[in-house]
Amino acid sequence: PVLESSLTYDLRPPGLILLEDFVTEQEEESLLNCVDWSHTEHKLGQSLKLRKVKHFGYEFHYDINNVHKDSPLTQNIPEECSILLPRLKERNCNVMSLPPDQLTVNQYQPGQGIPSHVDTHSAFEDPILSLSLGTPVVMEFKYQDGQNVPVYLPQRSLLVMSGESRYLWSHGISPRKTDIVPTPCGTLNSS
């Protein structure tokens, strides 16, 4: 389709790193299968207005925008995730000084998204990692001056938000079923 927008997808906020093909198709399948969405009891999973969410290590309490550090969950981060930190080092991305102790898994259905936000400073340290599994998606980053930077996140890519991109830019996913992304060879339909 003819694009009437001047949006480009090659700009990035300072401190934002995108590592494409971060996991293999087999690893992606293993990671997707390690989360059991059939249980939605307290501390095992929640259905929020716009998505399903599961927590490991610590539960994020959306009502207070924080975690209770003195009450960890019995469900630790799944063993399938243990490949991620060594992979960061293999890719020369030394952004983590300690292994993560908290994991939030968001499940989005087509047309769902997440409102623009900055992750709570007191609950989450720098950096924030986001692994895109199942499908690609466009995440929009917004700066206080109104600047809007859409970033195309390919399937199986890892997004590292640190520094300015983590603390000064909000990020979110617009609730739409498809994104039309300009490429050098035309356009790409992401859904």
Automatic annotation (TrEMBL):
SUPFAM superfamilies cross-referenced by the UniProt entry: Clavaminate synthase-like (SSF51197)
Top-level taxonomic group: Eukaryota
Required cofactor names: Fe(2+)
Domain Fe2OG dioxygenase: 99-191
Protein name: Fe2OG dioxygenase domain-containing protein
Species name: Timema podura
Origin organism lineage: Eukaryota, Metazoa, Ecdysozoa, Arthropoda, Hexapoda
